[in-house]
Amino acid sequence: MRKSILFQMGIMLVISMMSVVACHALSEDNILVLYNSDYQDSVEIAQYYQSARGLDNVQFLNINGLSSVWRISQSEYETKIMNPVAYYVNQLNSIGYDIQCIVLSSGIPEGVVPQEVISNGDDSTKPDTAGFSSTWASVDSELTVLGTSGSPGAYINPYSYYQPIINSENQVTGWVATETTESFDRDLYGGMYLVTRLGGRKWTKSTSLALIDRALEAEANGISGKAFLDQSPYVGGGLDDWTDLRLADAYDLLTTVYGIEANLESTNGFYQNDPYDYTEDTFFYWGLYDGSNNMYRVDPDVEGEDNDYGHDVYNFLPGSIGAHVISWSGEWLTGMLADGITGTMYPFAEPFTIGYSDPDVLLRYYLEGYTLAEAFYASQRLLSWQMIVVGDPLLTVSYNYDYLTDTPIPEPTTILLLFAGAMALVRRFKKI
Length: 432
What we know:
Layout (H helix, E strand, L loop, with lengths): L2 E5 L3 E5 L15 E5 L4 H14 L6 E3 L8 E3 H21 L6 E4 L6 E3 L1 H5 L17 E2 H6 L9 E3 L5 E5 L4 E7 L16 E4 L7 H17 L4 E5 L7 H21 L3 E4 L14 E9 L25 E12 L6 H7 L5 E4 L11 H9 L4 H7 L3 E2 L3 E4 L22 E5 L6 E5 L4
Parallel strand pairs: 1-11, 3-4, 3-6, 5-7, 6-12, 9-21, 13-14, 13-15, 15-16
Antiparallel strand pairs: 1-21, 2-20, 7-8, 9-18, 10-11, 17-19
Protein backbone atom coordinates (compact mmCIF):
# COMPACT_ATOMS: atom_id res chain seq x y z
CA MET A 1 0.00 0.00 0.00
CA ARG A 2 1.26 3.48 -0.85
CA LYS A 3 0.65 6.32 1.56
CA SER A 4 0.54 9.91 0.26
CA ILE A 5 2.14 12.67 2.27
CA LEU A 6 2.71 16.37 1.71
CA PHE A 7 6.25 17.66 1.53
CA GLN A 8 5.87 21.06 3.18
CA MET A 9 8.31 23.86 2.40
CA GLY A 10 9.46 25.55 5.60
CA ILE A 11 10.56 22.71 7.82
CA MET A 12 12.72 21.90 10.81
CA LEU A 13 15.51 19.53 9.88
CA VAL A 14 17.05 17.47 12.64
CA ILE A 15 20.29 15.78 11.77
CA SER A 16 22.57 13.40 13.58
CA MET A 17 25.54 11.45 12.31
CA MET A 18 25.36 7.99 13.83
CA SER A 19 27.84 5.20 13.34
CA VAL A 20 27.68 3.17 10.16
CA VAL A 21 28.79 -0.42 10.30
CA ALA A 22 29.42 -2.11 6.97
CA CYS A 23 28.55 -5.71 6.34
CA HIS A 24 28.04 -5.33 2.62
CA ALA A 25 26.76 -8.37 0.80
CA LEU A 26 26.02 -7.01 -2.69
CA SER A 27 27.62 -9.43 -5.13
CA GLU A 28 27.79 -10.45 -8.78
CA ASP A 29 24.71 -12.68 -8.42
CA ASN A 30 22.65 -9.61 -7.50
CA ILE A 31 23.23 -7.81 -10.82
CA LEU A 32 21.06 -7.48 -13.95
CA VAL A 33 22.52 -5.52 -16.89
CA LEU A 34 20.32 -3.80 -19.48
CA TYR A 35 21.77 -3.14 -22.94
CA ASN A 36 20.41 -2.12 -26.35
CA SER A 37 21.41 -4.30 -29.30
CA ASP A 38 20.55 -1.46 -31.69
CA TYR A 39 23.84 0.15 -30.62
CA GLN A 40 27.10 -1.78 -30.89
CA ASP A 41 28.72 0.35 -28.20
CA SER A 42 26.00 -0.72 -25.78
CA VAL A 43 26.69 -4.37 -26.52
CA GLU A 44 30.45 -3.97 -26.11
CA ILE A 45 30.15 -2.10 -22.80
CA ALA A 46 27.91 -4.89 -21.48
CA GLN A 47 30.33 -7.55 -22.67
CA TYR A 48 33.28 -5.74 -21.08
CA TYR A 49 31.46 -5.53 -17.76
CA GLN A 50 30.54 -9.22 -17.99
CA SER A 51 34.19 -10.11 -18.43
CA ALA A 52 35.29 -7.79 -15.61
CA ARG A 53 32.79 -9.12 -13.07
CA GLY A 54 32.28 -12.68 -14.27
CA LEU A 55 28.53 -12.35 -14.81
CA ASP A 56 26.46 -15.14 -16.36
CA ASN A 57 24.89 -14.71 -19.79
CA VAL A 58 21.39 -14.78 -18.31
CA GLN A 59 22.17 -11.64 -16.30
CA PHE A 60 21.87 -9.51 -19.44
CA LEU A 61 18.59 -8.28 -20.89
CA ASN A 62 18.32 -6.69 -24.33
CA ILE A 63 16.10 -3.57 -24.39
CA ASN A 64 15.87 -2.45 -28.02
CA GLY A 65 13.47 -0.81 -30.47
CA LEU A 66 13.29 2.38 -28.42
CA SER A 67 12.34 5.73 -29.96
CA SER A 68 15.16 7.71 -28.27
CA VAL A 69 18.23 7.35 -26.08
CA TRP A 70 17.41 10.68 -24.45
CA ARG A 71 13.80 10.52 -23.24
CA ILE A 72 10.69 8.48 -23.85
CA SER A 73 7.04 8.66 -22.83
CA GLN A 74 5.64 6.98 -19.75
CA SER A 75 3.75 4.55 -21.98
CA GLU A 76 6.89 3.53 -23.87
CA TYR A 77 8.81 3.20 -20.63
CA GLU A 78 6.21 0.86 -19.17
CA THR A 79 5.83 -1.22 -22.34
CA LYS A 80 9.44 -1.52 -23.45
CA ILE A 81 11.43 -1.21 -20.22
CA MET A 82 9.49 -1.54 -16.98
CA ASN A 83 7.31 -4.56 -17.81
CA PRO A 84 10.03 -6.62 -19.57
CA VAL A 85 12.51 -5.93 -16.76
CA ALA A 86 10.01 -6.81 -14.02
CA TYR A 87 9.12 -10.07 -15.79
CA TYR A 88 12.75 -11.01 -16.39
CA VAL A 89 13.77 -10.27 -12.81
CA ASN A 90 11.05 -12.61 -11.59
CA GLN A 91 12.31 -15.29 -13.98
CA LEU A 92 15.89 -14.93 -12.76
CA ASN A 93 14.87 -15.01 -9.13
CA SER A 94 12.84 -18.17 -9.75
CA ILE A 95 16.01 -20.01 -10.84
CA GLY A 96 18.15 -18.98 -7.89
CA TYR A 97 19.36 -15.44 -8.60
CA ASP A 98 18.62 -12.57 -6.24
CA ILE A 99 18.52 -9.40 -8.30
CA GLN A 100 19.13 -6.35 -6.11
CA CYS A 101 20.78 -4.00 -8.58
CA ILE A 102 20.14 -3.00 -12.19
CA VAL A 103 23.01 -1.66 -14.32
CA LEU A 104 22.40 0.29 -17.54
CA SER A 105 24.68 0.24 -20.56
CA SER A 106 24.51 2.96 -23.22
CA GLY A 107 21.48 3.03 -25.49
CA ILE A 108 19.05 3.01 -22.56
CA PRO A 109 17.15 6.34 -22.38
CA GLU A 110 17.88 8.85 -19.63
CA GLY A 111 14.39 10.12 -18.90
CA VAL A 112 10.64 9.64 -18.84
CA VAL A 113 8.40 12.59 -19.76
CA PRO A 114 4.72 13.13 -20.62
CA GLN A 115 3.78 12.21 -24.17
CA GLU A 116 2.71 15.78 -24.93
CA VAL A 117 6.24 17.03 -24.26
CA ILE A 118 7.57 14.68 -26.94
CA SER A 119 4.68 15.41 -29.34
CA ASN A 120 5.21 19.17 -29.02
CA GLY A 121 8.93 18.86 -29.66
CA ASP A 122 9.77 20.63 -26.39
CA ASP A 123 13.54 20.59 -25.92
CA SER A 124 13.42 21.96 -22.38
CA THR A 125 15.56 20.18 -19.81
CA LYS A 126 13.31 21.31 -16.97
CA PRO A 127 9.76 20.08 -16.29
CA ASP A 128 7.02 22.66 -16.59
CA THR A 129 5.20 21.19 -13.58
CA ALA A 130 6.14 23.13 -10.47
CA GLY A 131 7.98 21.58 -7.58
CA PHE A 132 8.05 17.98 -6.49
CA SER A 133 4.79 17.02 -8.22
CA SER A 134 6.51 16.72 -11.59
CA THR A 135 5.78 13.70 -13.78
CA TRP A 136 9.29 13.90 -15.26
CA ALA A 137 11.85 11.41 -13.93
CA SER A 138 15.03 9.66 -14.94
CA VAL A 139 14.64 6.12 -16.26
CA ASP A 140 17.23 5.06 -13.72
CA SER A 141 15.29 6.43 -10.77
CA GLU A 142 12.02 5.00 -12.11
CA LEU A 143 13.63 1.58 -12.17
CA THR A 144 14.44 1.84 -8.44
CA VAL A 145 10.68 1.55 -7.84
CA LEU A 146 10.17 -0.98 -10.61
CA GLY A 147 6.48 -1.61 -11.26
CA THR A 148 5.15 1.26 -9.12
CA SER A 149 6.03 4.39 -11.12
CA GLY A 150 3.85 6.70 -13.16
CA SER A 151 2.21 8.96 -10.56
CA PRO A 152 3.27 12.57 -10.03
CA GLY A 153 5.95 13.30 -7.50
CA ALA A 154 8.79 11.43 -5.86
CA TYR A 155 8.94 8.51 -3.47
CA ILE A 156 10.71 8.75 -0.14
CA ASN A 157 13.72 6.45 -0.31
CA PRO A 158 13.36 3.79 2.43
CA TYR A 159 17.12 3.08 2.30
CA SER A 160 18.06 6.73 2.86
CA TYR A 161 20.09 7.59 5.96
CA TYR A 162 17.63 10.45 6.52
CA GLN A 163 13.98 9.54 7.00
CA PRO A 164 11.04 11.97 7.26
CA ILE A 165 9.32 13.09 10.43
CA ILE A 166 5.60 12.94 9.69
CA ASN A 167 2.90 14.67 11.71
CA SER A 168 -0.68 13.56 12.31
CA GLU A 169 -1.77 15.20 9.06
CA ASN A 170 0.72 13.16 7.03
CA GLN A 171 2.94 16.18 6.45
CA VAL A 172 6.72 15.97 6.44
CA THR A 173 7.90 18.29 9.20
CA GLY A 174 11.58 17.36 9.12
CA TRP A 175 14.19 14.69 8.52
CA VAL A 176 15.99 12.61 11.09
CA ALA A 177 19.07 10.42 10.73
CA THR A 178 18.62 6.73 11.35
CA GLU A 179 21.35 4.28 12.28
CA THR A 180 21.93 1.76 9.50
CA THR A 181 23.82 -1.38 10.44
CA GLU A 182 22.97 -3.65 7.53
CA SER A 183 23.84 -3.64 3.88
CA PHE A 184 21.15 -3.13 1.27
CA ASP A 185 18.56 -5.86 0.93
CA ARG A 186 15.53 -4.99 -1.16
CA ASP A 187 13.31 -7.23 0.95
CA LEU A 188 14.09 -4.99 3.92
CA TYR A 189 13.60 -1.72 2.02
CA GLY A 190 10.23 -1.88 0.38
CA GLY A 191 11.29 -3.94 -2.63
CA MET A 192 13.33 -1.10 -4.19
CA TYR A 193 16.33 -1.66 -6.46
CA LEU A 194 19.71 0.02 -6.65
CA VAL A 195 20.29 1.33 -10.18
CA THR A 196 23.52 2.66 -11.70
CA ARG A 197 24.68 3.45 -15.21
CA LEU A 198 27.90 2.58 -17.03
CA GLY A 199 26.97 4.00 -20.44
CA GLY A 200 25.24 7.23 -21.36
CA ARG A 201 24.56 9.54 -24.27
CA LYS A 202 26.87 12.22 -22.82
CA TRP A 203 30.05 10.13 -22.91
CA THR A 204 31.85 7.65 -25.15
CA LYS A 205 32.31 3.90 -25.03
CA SER A 206 35.97 4.34 -24.08
CA THR A 207 34.90 6.42 -21.07
CA SER A 208 32.52 3.66 -19.99
CA LEU A 209 35.23 1.03 -20.25
CA ALA A 210 37.58 3.28 -18.26
CA LEU A 211 34.95 3.53 -15.49
CA ILE A 212 35.05 -0.25 -15.17
CA ASP A 213 38.86 -0.39 -15.26
CA ARG A 214 39.22 2.30 -12.60
CA ALA A 215 36.79 0.48 -10.31
CA LEU A 216 38.79 -2.74 -10.53
CA GLU A 217 42.06 -0.88 -9.97
CA ALA A 218 40.67 0.85 -6.89
CA GLU A 219 39.51 -2.46 -5.43
CA ALA A 220 42.93 -3.98 -5.98
CA ASN A 221 45.07 -1.09 -4.71
CA GLY A 222 42.85 0.95 -2.41
CA ILE A 223 42.17 4.66 -2.86
CA SER A 224 44.09 7.78 -1.88
CA GLY A 225 44.16 11.49 -2.61
CA LYS A 226 42.68 14.70 -1.24
CA ALA A 227 39.08 15.81 -0.89
CA PHE A 228 37.77 19.13 -2.22
CA LEU A 229 34.46 20.59 -1.04
CA ASP A 230 33.18 23.76 -2.69
CA GLN A 231 30.45 25.74 -0.93
CA SER A 232 28.43 28.49 -2.58
CA PRO A 233 27.43 31.29 -0.21
CA TYR A 234 26.56 33.39 -3.27
CA VAL A 235 23.33 31.46 -3.78
CA GLY A 236 22.14 31.34 -0.18
CA GLY A 237 18.82 30.38 1.32
CA GLY A 238 16.74 27.26 1.76
CA LEU A 239 18.04 23.98 0.40
CA ASP A 240 21.25 25.62 -0.82
CA ASP A 241 22.13 26.50 2.78
CA TRP A 242 21.35 22.89 3.64
CA THR A 243 23.87 21.67 1.05
CA ASP A 244 26.51 24.13 2.29
CA LEU A 245 25.98 22.75 5.80
CA ARG A 246 26.38 19.18 4.58
CA LEU A 247 29.63 20.18 2.87
CA ALA A 248 30.93 21.64 6.13
CA ASP A 249 29.98 18.44 7.96
CA ALA A 250 31.71 16.38 5.27
CA TYR A 251 34.85 18.44 5.78
CA ASP A 252 34.74 17.86 9.55
CA LEU A 253 34.16 14.15 9.01
CA LEU A 254 37.14 13.83 6.68
CA THR A 255 39.59 15.82 8.77
CA THR A 256 38.61 14.95 12.35
CA VAL A 257 37.42 11.36 12.02
CA TYR A 258 39.32 9.91 9.08
CA GLY A 259 42.40 12.11 9.04
CA ILE A 260 42.10 12.72 5.30
CA GLU A 261 43.47 15.95 3.84
CA ALA A 262 40.56 18.10 2.68
CA ASN A 263 40.01 21.61 1.36
CA LEU A 264 36.77 23.51 2.05
CA GLU A 265 36.31 26.36 -0.45
CA SER A 266 33.80 28.73 1.17
CA THR A 267 33.78 31.74 -1.19
CA ASN A 268 31.69 32.50 -4.26
CA GLY A 269 34.45 31.16 -6.48
CA PHE A 270 36.17 27.85 -7.11
CA TYR A 271 39.20 26.32 -5.53
CA GLN A 272 42.26 27.92 -7.10
CA ASN A 273 45.41 25.83 -7.32
CA ASP A 274 48.88 27.30 -7.56
CA PRO A 275 50.30 27.23 -10.12
CA TYR A 276 47.16 27.33 -12.24
CA ASP A 277 48.05 24.31 -14.35
CA TYR A 278 48.93 22.12 -11.38
CA THR A 279 46.48 19.26 -10.87
CA GLU A 280 45.57 17.88 -7.46
CA ASP A 281 45.41 14.13 -6.86
CA THR A 282 41.79 13.81 -5.78
CA PHE A 283 39.55 11.08 -4.42
CA PHE A 284 36.48 13.21 -3.61
CA TYR A 285 34.94 16.40 -4.99
CA TRP A 286 31.56 17.93 -4.16
CA GLY A 287 30.59 21.42 -5.24
CA LEU A 288 27.54 23.68 -5.28
CA TYR A 289 26.82 26.28 -7.96
CA ASP A 290 29.31 29.21 -7.62
CA GLY A 291 29.86 32.30 -9.72
CA SER A 292 27.72 35.37 -10.28
CA ASN A 293 25.47 33.50 -12.72
CA ASN A 294 25.58 30.06 -11.07
CA MET A 295 28.08 29.08 -13.74
CA TYR A 296 31.48 27.42 -13.63
CA ARG A 297 34.96 28.81 -13.96
CA VAL A 298 35.90 29.64 -17.53
CA ASP A 299 38.89 27.83 -18.96
CA PRO A 300 41.04 30.76 -20.11
CA ASP A 301 42.88 28.54 -22.61
CA VAL A 302 39.80 28.02 -24.79
CA GLU A 303 38.20 31.09 -26.35
CA GLY A 304 34.44 31.17 -25.92
CA GLU A 305 34.29 27.92 -23.93
CA ASP A 306 31.56 27.67 -21.32
CA ASN A 307 32.49 27.27 -17.71
CA ASP A 308 32.89 23.94 -16.00
CA TYR A 309 33.36 22.69 -12.44
CA GLY A 310 37.05 23.64 -12.44
CA HIS A 311 38.24 21.22 -15.12
CA ASP A 312 42.01 20.65 -15.17
CA VAL A 313 42.27 21.40 -11.44
CA TYR A 314 41.67 17.82 -10.33
CA ASN A 315 43.35 14.56 -11.22
CA PHE A 316 40.78 12.03 -10.10
CA LEU A 317 42.43 8.84 -8.90
CA PRO A 318 40.90 5.37 -9.35
CA GLY A 319 37.99 4.94 -6.96
CA SER A 320 37.28 8.69 -6.77
CA ILE A 321 33.70 9.91 -6.47
CA GLY A 322 31.89 13.26 -6.51
CA ALA A 323 29.51 15.63 -8.27
CA HIS A 324 28.69 19.28 -8.84
CA VAL A 325 25.24 20.24 -7.54
CA ILE A 326 23.32 22.23 -10.13
CA SER A 327 19.99 21.98 -11.93
CA TRP A 328 21.45 20.41 -15.05
CA SER A 329 24.61 18.48 -15.81
CA GLY A 330 26.13 21.06 -18.16
CA GLU A 331 29.79 20.62 -18.94
CA TRP A 332 30.89 19.32 -15.58
CA LEU A 333 29.80 15.72 -16.14
CA THR A 334 31.94 15.08 -19.20
CA GLY A 335 34.75 17.11 -17.62
CA MET A 336 34.78 14.98 -14.49
CA LEU A 337 34.64 11.77 -16.48
CA ALA A 338 37.51 13.00 -18.65
CA ASP A 339 39.49 13.84 -15.50
CA GLY A 340 39.11 10.25 -14.31
CA ILE A 341 36.29 10.18 -11.75
CA THR A 342 35.04 6.64 -11.01
CA GLY A 343 31.58 7.37 -9.60
CA THR A 344 29.26 10.36 -9.89
CA MET A 345 25.62 11.41 -10.23
CA TYR A 346 23.80 13.91 -12.44
CA PRO A 347 20.18 14.98 -13.03
CA PHE A 348 17.96 14.29 -16.01
CA ALA A 349 15.87 17.38 -15.17
CA GLU A 350 15.48 19.84 -12.27
CA PRO A 351 16.15 17.75 -9.13
CA PHE A 352 16.38 20.58 -6.56
CA THR A 353 19.36 20.29 -4.25
CA ILE A 354 17.56 17.78 -2.05
CA GLY A 355 17.59 15.38 -5.00
CA TYR A 356 21.36 15.03 -4.79
CA SER A 357 23.16 12.84 -2.27
CA ASP A 358 24.20 14.34 1.06
CA PRO A 359 28.01 14.36 0.71
CA ASP A 360 28.74 13.62 4.38
CA VAL A 361 26.56 10.50 4.32
CA LEU A 362 27.96 9.43 0.95
CA LEU A 363 31.49 9.62 2.31
CA ARG A 364 30.62 7.81 5.51
CA TYR A 365 29.19 4.80 3.68
CA TYR A 366 31.83 4.71 0.97
CA LEU A 367 34.76 4.92 3.38
CA GLU A 368 33.25 2.31 5.69
CA GLY A 369 33.27 -0.34 2.96
CA TYR A 370 29.79 -0.17 1.47
CA THR A 371 29.52 -0.56 -2.29
CA LEU A 372 29.33 2.47 -4.56
CA ALA A 373 25.63 1.78 -5.22
CA GLU A 374 24.82 1.51 -1.52
CA ALA A 375 26.72 4.71 -0.70
CA PHE A 376 24.97 6.79 -3.35
CA TYR A 377 21.50 5.51 -2.48
CA ALA A 378 21.89 5.61 1.30
CA SER A 379 22.74 9.30 0.89
CA GLN A 380 19.84 10.40 -1.33
CA ARG A 381 16.28 10.81 -0.10
CA LEU A 382 14.08 10.56 -3.17
CA LEU A 383 13.26 7.82 -5.67
CA SER A 384 11.23 7.98 -8.89
CA TRP A 385 12.89 11.37 -9.31
CA GLN A 386 15.60 12.94 -11.49
CA MET A 387 19.01 11.61 -10.45
CA ILE A 388 21.26 9.21 -12.40
CA VAL A 389 24.11 7.41 -10.59
CA VAL A 390 27.16 6.62 -12.74
CA GLY A 391 29.65 3.88 -11.92
CA ASP A 392 30.19 0.21 -11.15
CA PRO A 393 27.68 -0.61 -8.38
CA LEU A 394 29.89 -3.35 -6.94
CA LEU A 395 32.90 -1.09 -6.37
CA THR A 396 34.05 -1.48 -2.77
CA VAL A 397 37.15 0.36 -1.59
CA SER A 398 39.45 0.92 1.35
CA TYR A 399 41.19 4.25 1.82
CA ASN A 400 44.93 4.28 2.51
CA TYR A 401 44.71 6.55 5.57
CA ASP A 402 45.47 6.60 9.28
CA TYR A 403 42.09 6.15 10.93
CA LEU A 404 41.74 8.42 13.97
CA THR A 405 39.98 5.90 16.19
CA ASP A 406 40.10 8.08 19.30
CA THR A 407 38.27 10.97 17.64
CA PRO A 408 34.49 11.05 18.23
CA ILE A 409 32.05 11.52 15.40
CA PRO A 410 30.86 15.17 15.29
CA GLU A 411 27.91 16.08 17.48
CA PRO A 412 24.43 16.13 15.89
CA THR A 413 23.48 19.38 14.21
CA THR A 414 20.07 21.02 14.32
CA ILE A 415 19.14 23.75 11.88
CA LEU A 416 15.97 25.57 10.88
CA LEU A 417 15.69 26.10 7.14
CA LEU A 418 12.95 28.24 5.65
CA PHE A 419 12.01 27.38 2.09
CA ALA A 420 10.17 29.41 -0.50
CA GLY A 421 7.73 27.66 -2.80
CA ALA A 422 4.51 25.70 -2.90
CA MET A 423 3.74 22.43 -1.20
CA ALA A 424 4.29 19.40 -3.39
CA LEU A 425 3.44 15.73 -3.36
CA VAL A 426 5.93 13.17 -2.15
CA ARG A 427 4.95 9.54 -1.76
CA ARG A 428 6.09 6.93 0.70
CA PHE A 429 7.44 3.88 -1.14
CA LYS A 430 6.26 0.59 0.29
CA LYS A 431 6.26 -2.94 -1.05
CA ILE A 432 2.89 -3.65 -2.60
